[in-house]
Amino acid sequence: MSVGKENVIVVIEDTDEDFETIEFLLKKTGYQFVLQRFEFADNAIEYLKDNPPPVFVLLDLNLNGTGGHETLKIIKKDEKYCIIPIIVLTTSTDPKDVEFCYRNGASGYFHKPVNFEKFGRSLQILMDYWLEAVILH
Prior knowledge:
Elements: E1 8-12, H1 16-27, E2 34-38, H2 41-50, E3 56-59, H3 68-77, E4 86-90, H4 95-103, E5 108-111, H5 116-134
């Protein structure tokens, strides 16, 4: 698979360590894509307005500034980019967060395990599913 605008994945994650882990593990999947990282949701929303839609968005719920909950609502209520799949990546296992995300249009809810190996296996499965579903079909 070649890298192009259609192979951009937006990552909205404000923790360097979490982003570096995601970046490292995503590179190990073997798929070719460009990660566009934003530490602040407002910057990501501006990017989405001015660029072709990414393959999908990985969204952390616990962000500084505009939080993940509000970001999800903003993206999903805008007709221009409401069809972009948003996969929530979070440490939260709160059933209220899960319900909120699905009620507000999240395409998936992924708990970030503390264990690096488990996180890697889970992220590989997540990437296999979404990249196969969105890019290849």
